[in-house]
Amino acid sequence: MKQNKTHKLVCKEFKETGTCRYKDDCKYLHTIDVDDDIICMICRKEYDEKVMADCGHAFCLKCAFDEYQKDDKCYKCKINTYGRFKPLF
C-alpha cells in the first residue's frame, strides 16, 4: 500500500510514553490525543481537580494519588513521579 507523502506518521514512542528520544530530530509527528486535554487517562472521566506530574502527564488529583499509592511511577510513561503533582485547577 502506498503512503500519502503529505501526512507524517505519528511517533509510536511519543504516543505511548509522551516522550521521544529523538526529540526535535524525530521524523515522525508528535501529537497528543485531544481527549487528554479534558479526560483523565486513569478514570476516563472529565478531570476533577486536574494535576500534572513532572513528566507532563495529567490526571485527576484523586486518581494521581490513588495510583501513586500503588506505584510511584507515572501511570502513562512509567517515569518516577516522586509523588509530585502540580495543581492545574
UniProtKB/TrEMBL annotation:
<protein>
    <recommendedName>
        <fullName>Pre-mRNA-splicing factor CWC24</fullName>
    </recommendedName>
</protein>
<dbReference type="Pfam" id="PF13445">
    <property type="entry name" value="zf-RING_UBOX"/>
</dbReference>
<comment type="similarity">
    <text>Belongs to the CWC24 family.</text>
</comment>
<dbReference type="Pfam" id="PF00642">
    <property type="entry name" value="zf-CCCH"/>
</dbReference>
<keyword id="KW-0238">DNA-binding</keyword>
<dbReference type="InterPro" id="IPR027370">
    <property type="entry name" value="Znf-RING_euk"/>
</dbReference>
<dbReference type="InterPro" id="IPR013083">
    <property type="entry name" value="Znf_RING/FYVE/PHD"/>
</dbReference>
<comment type="subunit">
    <text>Associated with the spliceosome.</text>
</comment>
<keyword id="KW-0479">Metal-binding</keyword>
<comment type="function">
    <text>Involved in pre-mRNA splicing.</text>
</comment>
<dbReference type="GO" id="GO:0008270">
    <property type="term" value="F:zinc ion binding"/>
</dbReference>
<dbReference type="GO" id="GO:0005684">
    <property type="term" value="C:U2-type spliceosomal complex"/>
</dbReference>
<feature type="zinc finger region" description="C3H1-type">
    <location>
        <begin position="5"/>
        <end position="33"/>
    </location>
</feature>
<dbReference type="InterPro" id="IPR001841">
    <property type="entry name" value="Znf_RING"/>
</dbReference>
<dbReference type="InterPro" id="IPR000571">
    <property type="entry name" value="Znf_CCCH"/>
</dbReference>
<feature type="domain" description="RING-type">
    <location>
        <begin position="40"/>
        <end position="78"/>
    </location>
</feature>
<dbReference type="InterPro" id="IPR039971">
    <property type="entry name" value="CWC24-like"/>
</dbReference>
<keyword id="KW-0747">Spliceosome</keyword>
<dbReference type="InterPro" id="IPR017907">
    <property type="entry name" value="Znf_RING_CS"/>
</dbReference>
<dbReference type="InterPro" id="IPR036855">
    <property type="entry name" value="Znf_CCCH_sf"/>
</dbReference>
<keyword id="KW-0863">Zinc-finger</keyword>
<feature type="domain" description="C3H1-type">
    <location>
        <begin position="5"/>
        <end position="33"/>
    </location>
</feature>
<dbReference type="GO" id="GO:0034247">
    <property type="term" value="P:snoRNA splicing"/>
</dbReference>
<dbReference type="GO" id="GO:0006397">
    <property type="term" value="P:mRNA processing"/>
</dbReference>
<keyword id="KW-0508">mRNA splicing</keyword>
<dbReference type="GO" id="GO:0003677">
    <property type="term" value="F:DNA binding"/>
</dbReference>
<keyword id="KW-0507">mRNA processing</keyword>
<keyword id="KW-0539">Nucleus</keyword>
<keyword id="KW-0862">Zinc</keyword>
